[in-house]
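Purpose: get a first structural picture of the assembly so the mutagenesis plan has something to point at.
Setup: two entries, given in the order below. No constraints added.
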Amino acid sequence: MQQPPETEPLNPPERTLMGPGPSEVHPRVLRVMSAPLIGHLDAAFIEIMDEVQELLRYTFQTDNKWTIPVSGTGSASMETAFANVVEPGETVLVPTNGYFGGRMESMAERAGGDVVTVDAPWGEPLQPDDVAAAFDEHDPDVFGFVHAETSTGVLQPHVSELTSIAHEHDAYVIADTVTSLGGVELRVDEWDIDVAYSGGQKCLSCPPGASPLTVNDRTMEKVLNRDTEVRSWYLDLSLLEGYWGEERAYHHTAPITNVYALRESLQLVAEEGLEARWERHREMATKLKTGLEDLGFELNPDDEFWLPSLNAVRVPDGVDDTELLDYLKREYDIEVASGLGALEGEILRIGCMGYSARPQNIEFLLAAIEDGLEAQGFDQ
Amino acid sequence: MQQPPETEPLNPPERTLMGPGPSEVHPRVLRVMSAPLIGHLDAAFIEIMDEVQELLRYTFQTDNKWTIPVSGTGSASMETAFANVVEPGETVLVPTNGYFGGRMESMAERAGGDVVTVDAPWGEPLQPDDVAAAFDEHDPDVFGFVHAETSTGVLQPHVSELTSIAHEHDAYVIADTVTSLGGVELRVDEWDIDVAYSGGQKCLSCPPGASPLTVNDRTMEKVLNRDTEVRSWYLDLSLLEGYWGEERAYHHTAPITNVYALRESLQLVAEEGLEARWERHREMATKLKTGLEDLGFELNPDDEFWLPSLNAVRVPDGVDDTELLDYLKREYDIEVASGLGALEGEILRIGCMGYSARPQNIEFLLAAIEDGLEAQGFDQ
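Result (structure tokens, whole complex):
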């Protein structure tokens, strides 16, 4: 018999979370996480499911019946989108201008898709002309794009133009809205997006574990009429249909507490109002950006592609970015992240999301960065 | 602009959970769920990951390095096992004596496996002779079996005999321990199980969302040397290796709060001691079983295959089981479940798991059932 290990009571440090996620969780959301469980087939839980679906529709700005939380973190809702929509042998067009386009490629390939790409440099959005050219060349069945690139801090404009091009070619559009949902203008129906997925721990400020997904009827018809089974049982929407649809039959055990938390996070969105929330994110991020510019940092993307929820900035010449990040964590318990992929070592990624997007956090971060620069001998 | 829906504050009913899961959550576990988040790459979180792995090894009674929580509910850890171990074209042997053997079949097929079966009636365990005959006939590469069948309340004995047969044929053994881990004797290394998966919401009494998985080195070598990519990106152990292994590199965002909760649940296991915990489950379930027999219920499986964590009982002649379940929920807020699959309408499934396996719950349930029988005109 092996002996039990000895562990101390859980006591995580108190961090100010200003990285690319998770963001800080609202106290009301933390509170509902300690509510006792009820069964995942209990009538009371089914009512909670209905409410979560309704609140998600509002937050996505969609009427899609198929609007659900997937039982996993953001990458699970992402894979649910690709694994269900893509059938073996179909052509899938994905972007190369950020880390998450690469992940789309890997997921589409595992679903059996043939992947082709549309290019733009890291730190820039896709150009509609390039997307149109890629459609003319490859005639893809599915087109994935990233609305808010967490790796580059770039907001994709022209979304309606992109979806128009795709629909002229009878393709299905999957949008990554992980870092935009609930923080940046997003209108799924008006912009004619077929499928959008997101995560909890960004602008919704919800602990990760139940991740938003919306699928329109046209796409769900494709999914329900596939020639081959979806390659994941856990993420198969035709099976999840039994649980989240009319029947409410058992498929798998839902992450009950995470559904409670998502409901409360979405209720906070509804109470604040979506447009007011977008405006708050922009206002707080403007304060942050201005402060950073005063300290010598420069926004990496062009101003017109600025993503308020994730500010990618170049560090001033001579500043050691790793040392600065360590200093912020060590001296101030602040989390901020460095670059990822092609921008590793070139930028800092500073989140301004959900409950973290408030004056206290911004002032504290700016003061801490100023101190960190001074510690490296940079006086303002 | 769509208008926000109006919802009330979350207020789930207080249930006494005595069904097949979720079980009730220990107050200490509920408490840590409201701890503030830290980043999934934070050094403090990595320490928590290490502790969870160590505690899981103890609970599984294994030295396997590859012992991790999968970022989803129990079906996600189940699919991680099958999706990684099974390669397209391999033969997979699964049982037909319960609901979860059927799920194994579906998952193995989606991984590209050719499925063959070994039969036993619902309500009975597999016989080693039948397993040996199936091996001789089909020479499978992978063999899945269910240690504790939640649909039938049957405990599979002879586990070492089953794994011996499989290993004589160089096959890999995957064990479903969803309803046994932390409640019923289970010794992964001593019994020579290659892969075991479980869930949080059964005998660990943890909210579902981070699900235990253990894989031995021999199997991990197979996984890391696959000819084809795993068909799910989210569940690919060769990628998760970067996050849970030495490197601690970013793969996906872990369900941070669920990992906190699992840690606390496992700490409660370690404090109680695994053997004492198995004994408590047996003792409480004996009390329950005796009480039920006094009320005219009969255990469905033979006594030697009795699964203390999930008691499958036949209702006395003339009792309306649906009416009884409704009565328990309506009058007492108690959750108990009916049969599933081939045993639908024939049995009740009464859980005795984790924090729910305590005298208060058992006495309350027995009193409520007695009352429910009286309401149907059955006097004892």
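Chain A touches chain B through 88 residues (CB under 8 Å).
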